[in-house]
Amino acid sequence: MEKLTEIGFEKVGNWEISKKDTSVIEHTISSHSDRTDLIYAFVSDNQVKYIGMTDSTLHTRMGLYKSGKNASAGSTNKKVYVEILSLLNSQKKVDIYVLSNVALPTYKGFRVSIASGIELSLIEHFQNTTKEIGGLWNKRGTSSKGTPKSPKSETSKRDSISENSFC
Fold first, then answer.
1. Cα 34 from Cα 56, distance rounded (Å)
2. Closest C-alpha among 88, 94, 86, 37 to residue 60
3. Which runs of consecutive H residues, i.e. helices, occur in 12-93?
4. N or C: less crowded end of the chain, CB within 10 Å?
5. CA nearest 48: which of 114, 115, 137?
6. Segment 83-92, tens digit of pLDDT
7. Lowest mean pLDDT: which of 7-16, 22-31, 70-79, 99-108?
8. Higher-confidence residue: 135 or 44?
């Protein structure tokens, strides 16, 4: 958790169980709800539980988890919805953090997404540092056996792709 805030994540909201229907989760977001291209994290008990990024606005992305109750069984939205609801039912808080105030660089006039570039690295870092307590909910950044991928193997794959793709 300390690493998360150290690199610039800030708390912007939280998840709660709906007062009208205990199978529904609701989010509150105090800032950045209309921004896109953000990296966000769900944190409970000072432990990072999930890291994702937005293609749409933060508010819209959180709404997809809220509607995860009705999503297909294998979807990320369904899996994360179930995990959030489980924590909330256990009387645990689930906070929403975002990495904000990141300058959006350009390359020859094209915007470069920092979120796309750093998301996998953050998942791998927190997957490795939290594996003794169950790891992250993320499947991306893990092997098919559910264990964290080694950063070296990812680098080797990229190097191999780079060497072979542009010959």
1. 9
2. 37
3. 58-66, 76-89
4. C
5. 137
6. 999 999 999 9
7. 99-108
8. 44
Contacts of 63 (CB under 8 A, 6+ apart): 27
Those residues whose C-beta lies under 8 Å from the C-beta of residue 56, and which sit 6 or more positions away, are: 36
Answer for the pair 25, 39: CB distance below 8 angstroms, yes or no: no
Rounded to whole angstroms, how far apart are CA atoms 21 and 132? 34
The domains located in the chain, with CATH, are 2-154 (3.40.1440.40)
Q: How far is CA 69 from CA 40, 85, 129, 130, in A?
A: 20, 10, 29, 26
β 106-107/110-111 pair status: antiparallel
**Locus of tokens 């819209």:** 60
Structure tokens at 21: 């229907």
Torsion angle, alpha carbons of 12, 81, 87, 58, to 10:
0
Give CA–CA dist 95/41, Å, rounded: 8
Q: What is the pLDDT of residue 103?
A: 66
